[in-house]
Write a structure and sequence with these properties.
- The chain has one domain: P-loop containing nucleotide triphosphate hydrolases (Rossmann fold, 3-Layer(aba) Sandwich).
- The chain is about 55% helix and about 10% strand.
- The protein is built from 8 helices and 5 strands; from the N terminus they run βαβααβααβααβα.
- Strands 2-3-1-4-5 form a 5-stranded parallel beta sheet, with helices on both faces.
- It binds adenosine-5'-diphosphate and thymidine-5'-diphosphate (TYD).
- Thymidine-5'-diphosphate binds next to helix 4.
Length: about 220
């Protein structure tokens, strides 16, 4: 039941890396958090809403649970299939703590952690979590190259480097906890490598860490 999560800030290269990894693994399916089509209008509302961070995190938590339920079904139907999640619980935790810090002076920090720790019990634990990192300048360059130029991690005109820095710092804390509970973590810096080089690093490391042949 191989379940892999790909995490990273927006523009890190999660989507590209997930599809390259799925290609290399063969029998693999990619899911997203939130899944396209999951309560889209509400998602748009909450993506714009930075004031009520507790309502926002509750929505994204439910979206993550929805993705998790799909993953469970997929893994039950075909135990040999790899499922790759482009964002998961860790995004929801880290992004909302970052939001709260930058926009609300960490007013709701304890509440976000409490909500997320309740929901954690319902989540399937991944076999491997891949964290893709990218330096700020390169991330800016890649975001600017996007068709609409939007920084879609935040979908907001208030998106700025403070959020990016806070998101990365919160990811680090989330990953410290993850390491303590024994989850396998692969950290890859995607700043100075070409897409195919990054894909190759991830393919090889995934094979070794999951003891699978990914050649
Ligand atoms: N190693 C790389 N070198 C150059 N461009 C990259 C690299 N990895 C990803 N990109 C580009 O950066 C952009 C963001 O990648 P994407 O996979 O959409 O990121 P994410 O899903 O994390 O937001 C895309 O245009 C992608 O083609
Ligand atoms: C999981 C999660 C995602 N998001 C955001 C990140 C994206 O902007 C959006 C997902 O929208 P989507 O357009 O589906 O993904 P992307 O643009 O990254 O390919 O949801 C949160 O704000 N909080 C969360 O907890």
């Amino acid at each position: 039941m191989p379940f892999i999560v790909v995490e990273g800030v927006n523009g890190a290269g999660k989507t590209v890396a997930s599809s390259k990894l799925a290609e290399a693994l063969g029998n693999a399916q990619i899911v997203k958090t939130p899944m396209p089509g999951f309560l889209e209008e509400l998602k748009e509302y909450f993506v714009r809403n930075q004031e009520n961070i507790v309502a926002r995190v509750t929505f994204f938590d439910a979206a993550t649970k929805h993705t998790c339920d799909l993953i469970r079904d997929m893994l039950c139907r075909d135990p040999n299939r790899f499922v790759i999640a482009d964002r998961y619980w860790y995004s929801t935790m880290a992004s909302h703590l970052a939001y709260d810090r930058v926009f609300n002076g960490s007013k709701s920090r304890d509440e976000i952690i409490e909500i997320m720790n309740i929901s954690k019990k319902y989540f399937i634990r991944p076999d491997l979590v891949i964290l893709i990192d990218v330096d700020p300048e390169e991330r800016r360059r890649r975001i600017a190259l996007r068709k609409d130029g939007r920084d879609d991690a935040w979908h907001t005109e208030n998106a700025d480097e403070r959020l990016f820095v806070a998101f990365k710092e919160e990811y680090e804390k989330v990953f410290d906890d993850l390491r303590k509970d024994g989850t396998k973590i692969l950290k890859v810096n995607n700043t100075r490598t070409e897409i195919d080089q990054t894909a190759e690093i991830i393919r090889k490391a995934t094979g070794i860490m999951l003891k699978r042949n990914t050649a």
